[in-house]
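Why predict the complex rather than its parts? Because the way molecules touch one another can change local conformation, and only a joint prediction can capture that. The input here totals 1516 residues.
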Amino acid sequence: MRATMDGNTAVAHIAYRVSEVCAIYPITPSSTMAELADQWAAEGTPNIWGNIPVVQEMQSEAGAAGTLHGALQAGALTTTFTASQGLLLMLPNMFKIAGELTSVVFHVAARAIATQALSIFGDHTDVMAARGTGFALLSAASVQEAHDLALVAHAATLRARVPVLHFFDGFRTSHEVNSLDLIDDSAIRAMIDDDLVRAHRTRALRPENPVVRGTAHNPDTFFQARETSNPFYAAMPGIVQEEMDRLAALTGRQYHLFDYTGAPDAERVIILMGSGAETAMATAAALAAVGERVGVLQVRLFRPFAAEAFLAALPATARRIAVIEQTKEPGAYGEPLFQEIVTVLARAAMAPAGTNARPLPIVVGGRYGLSSKDFPPALAKAVFDELAKPTPRNGFTLGIIDDVGHTHLAPDLTFRLPANGTTEAVFYGLGADGTVGANKNSVKIIAEQAGLYAQGYFVYDSHKSGAQTVSHLRFGPNPIQAPYLISAAGFVACHQFAFAERTDILRLAAPGATLLLNSPYPADTVWDHLPLAMQVRIIELGLKFYVIDASRVAQEAGLRGRTNIILQTCFFAISGVLPRDRAIVEIKHAIDKTYGGKGADIVRRNHRAVDRTLEGLHQVAIPAHPTAIWDRAPHVPANAPAFVRNVTAKMMDGLGDDIPVSMMPIDGTFPVGTARFEKRNIAEVVPVWEADLCIQCGQCSFVCPHAVIGARTFDAKRLDDAPAGFPAAPINVRGFPDLRFSLHLSLEDCTGCGLCVEACPALSPIEPGMKALNLHDKLPLMAGAVAAQTFFDGLPINDRSRVDFANVRGVQFLEPLFVYSGACAGCGETPYLKLLSQLFGERMMVANATGCSSIYGGNLPVTPWAANAEGRGPAWANSLFEDNAEFGLGFRLAADKHLDTAIGLARALTPELGEDLVAAVIAAPQVRESEFRDQRIRVAELTRRLRRSADPRAAHLLSLIDHFVRRSIWIVGGDGWAYDIGYGGLDHVLSTGRDVNVLVMDTEVYSNTGGQASKATPLGAVAKFAAAGKRTARKDLALQAIAYGNVYVAQVAMGGNPQQTLLAFREAEAYPGPSLILAYSHCIAHGIDMRQGLRQQDLAVASGYWPLFRYNPALRDAGATPFVLDSPRPHVKFRDYAYNEIRYRALAQSRPEEAAKLLASAEQAINEKYRLYEDMAGWAPNRFAAPV
Amino acid sequence: MDLSTKYLGLDLASPLVASASPLTLDVGNIRALEDHGAGAVVLPSIFEEQIELEAEELEHRMEWGSDSFAEALSYFPPSDAYRSGSQRYLETIRQARAAVAIPIIASLNGITDSGWLDYARDIQEAGASALELNIYTVAADPGQDAGAIERRYVDILRLVRAVVKIPVAMKLSPYFSAPAAMLRTLEAEGAAGFVLFNRFYQPDIDLGTLRLRRDLALSTPAEIRLPLLWIALMAGRTRASLAASTGVESADEVIKYLLAGADVVMTTSSLLRHGVRHMRTLHDGMTGWFAARDTTLAAMRGKMSLRRVKDPTAFERANYIRILQSWR
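Output of the joint prediction:
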């Protein structure tokens, strides 16, 4: 059956059907497989034996592997899905599983491993790290292949007893939507031999036939025992080939361990694995067609490596071979496949004459495609060209400019494969505008209704709000085997007019292509609104140019700005892939399917939009010459630092591929504060300040997730230089008649989330609905925006040692050192980080667990962590997901050790440095800001004296002197880290008593990977992996930490009580031991109106769901009750909080009775918990645990 | 005591009807209402606009942020299993019909023609005993004259009647220039009964925040006079059933409405205030009143209607002046 799906779905389709147990954990790009397994199980979809597999989410991949190991030992057919760091966490079990000759398949969407940086994108580094485990490594190159080889893997492992790691390229295959022929269930059934299934069960641990496994050996036997499995590995390649042959008999699709394509007498051969093979083969075919003796050998089974099969597949004529790989093994002579091939060929050359000896060809190795770096035909051709040279380079790279090691091959970028009837189209969209969804729909329509083959691949930028998406669509009469980005599209659609003004959307347009632009300007005037460069390109390329005001059509049809259906209709109308009438029928059919269950009116409105589209679509007459007098401005100002201009700006411009090696930091170290150079202008509405109404309370800037609201006080005289209309008000504090207060909004950085407006308590007494902040259309406000920004930036920052930190009002005057992050508009996490940066930023180190906060905090091109004018600010690093608490503890240990050393040195140097100064530096109190200021003055003086010193210890002390200013160590992350994968480490770190501060930004779900349940997910909420509603209450991490006795613990919700949040942050930081803050963070994954995020926080508190409290061991030690309950008794019904959120309401709408039951349980649990806290608040101090 | 009555052609064991409120969306409450003497139950109105908005909101919030960021292409499990508001409503009709013997009357507030048609059809299919059309519009458009508004009522009734066989009641507002003529017109179009009257949402103003206060004010006995008047005026002058609604707090109001000629008396506010067991209080109060006078419902119904009172002028406008004068 022909179907259209992505690689993850194609693989999960098989894995689920042939499994009894799936042990899962989310990790990009494999999460979809686990989500599908969980969804199918929840829906009751059976496996091929008619029963529903058990799908169990675990706390980490290590946990998933352990569970899987156990399930296998207990005889269940078990599988898992993972990638990258997840696979690394499974390695210990993999060695065990293989050593025990256990039949299992791991499906891996291969992904880069974090090294100098994290990357979610695809390469084979993870798989290659597993090559010593004893797993067979089976590589699939396409969606169809991944589907087919998944089944081959399951069938083979049952026969061979060698476990299989089946892998395919992360994103390129896992996320590519392509046409494929699905294996029907009867064929799946035929491939899985029930005798082997029973044999697998027979090998299981059973009390009825007890055995022991996992014994410990001594030097006398371990080695021999290790060698016992050799026959199984020897048999494995043959078994895999036989299963491939069986699949061929059932489906007609024949695979081999090694498949060669190209000239039969090829001299130059590329050897590779994965999706790049399709590109290389298509390139070889094109070159062979013009007489070049080239070919490609695709490796499917890398381990166990079948030397004979390989040699048989390689043409005997091959004299020059390039082995190219999507992995890097620093320090190795070559990458793993290269080494394997050279070894095999060398051994073949060593064979005695008269046997199978063959001359040793020239073999070179190269790297390509790290982190999904595109691998187009031009690069494959560059390899063939290199092989044709007298001395082909070894250790080359492809697709980058290596101006340091000079390893790269320079491709002929004009080289393209013949179209072969394939049409290529690219679509620029905004994350939220539905472009990607519509294109996925189009691929289905084309493939399933037009009878064509179709492929869709989608590229996203790194922002969580206002992200640009680029959809690459191919379709045609032949199967689409082109796993690389489109570079010369015949159709370019830009669904957002602003992109045309800001970026080169015609970079991928072919000569004579068609351009469709969603434009607020009609066909007769749109030309005048295009930048010069774009006009030039349109004329040069001879484009056909269409416009539609899709937003207007959407509005008229009642679609509230959803333009995707309209633009999809335009695509079909212009491209002619289907006859127009037929296309419209099919689009409407797709609408019915998508929206059918959601209301007749939504369907009607979408239909109406389709019907109205064509009358709004117009061709633009293109002048002979460009007429524009303006052009796109550079992304960053001319006065930006060189790195930002030369590197960051290129990334912003979509030209990151062109940045050479020499310009990249060598060790992953990047400058801070680059987000300020990225003026994204994504908001349509922005807040406007009413100075007269403002009570200067600071609530707005406190909650602003993007730090776009700045407050300053300054001398009134400065206003003489202010641009006209710059708003300011007398400061509303008595005794400062000359001081002015200004609240400034960085309009270009604002996301328009509206949280500030909701937080603003100042209502006009005479204008209904008016506050001190109100949202207005941005465009008319932009005229004076830059001048106002420049003036505000020039105002002096208020002296932090004179700011009252104790209240929210004072905090607004502290400079945030976490600014303009690319987090979701209205993010519930970032206000907490911003607050940290304001309070402690200039002496703060941040260990950030992988997750949302590490992405909006550290995903290039720009990062929000910043430094102040003195060059001080948070020093930030992300290690891993699972180790963050330990990573942060390491910061503390180093700081403590270095402080000790520094104190020792200072004391030793006292005679030279001065007794008073040394004593003061060592004993200085460091809690208040004025004390930090004084300490910095002392340290500066100490530095001055040390620089004059000739004592060699002085240089030593100088290298440690910063530690005299108390360092604030913050360990931050989400609940997936703190409650699940990093829980063991967090628990241990809290138990050490060391002075670290832990901030858990608790969204109660794995937000970054798309909303999977964690142990913080509340009872009754729907999440991925808890599609039927979570059955257990969230873990009470706070009580667990309180049990240690010496951990400061606070639960906060900024929207519930900002002052309590502030108090808790300051107390936690000041407490000289471990601190844990659980911060309620509303999230897009709650399914809320993000503008109401703070209100939801307030309701969470008011309903008793999220009580606010602080447990301060210092109070206990002082004889006071250490547990302070900061929120009142529940006075709002839990349902009045919960049912504002889709995560709760979804269950009420899908399973109302179940939802009602869970809601009642949740309410009961909440009341009980509150009662417990209330009790604790009344306990005598000695009832709380205290370490001795 | 025989309290049986006919409403919309349905045989009811009691003239007490629990009218549309969140209480009647719960099958347990419906059972309790039957136990406590309700003759029928009206389910809350299915608001086309609300259902569409709810569906749109669900769609919007589930999809918001999807296909935007490579690691999180969606945030919720797929939504195929989610039932829209109308599906849940229809399920309630089915469950309620299975749970109790008393008639279950559905209520519908549409916006579009297709909304009225589709939902009416679905409601009938789900097994509702009758359908109440809750035409809730505030005639605020100066471009729409009285005739157009009245025609819309007729059109909606005609549309619905064309697709359903179950009896259809019209819940009306009191704001017609000629209510009596309107009832006659609607009766001619096949209205099986009238519910007098609908209470419109009337916001208050919060002087502190300068915001409209959107709280719901439950009706009080002081409000019964307008419907009481019109029940009394119309009783016996239409073949359609008359349901009195608004202001029922105790058995007194029930009896007054019955005396005025109502076939059934509906209450929401008192049940919301006192819980579903209050139906028993109303029921017992009513039967106690009849018993104390050794009479029956059948004998007393309509005794105080325009057609049967000895001094019909008491119901006429001329009387108004006299009342005012006496008040002074």
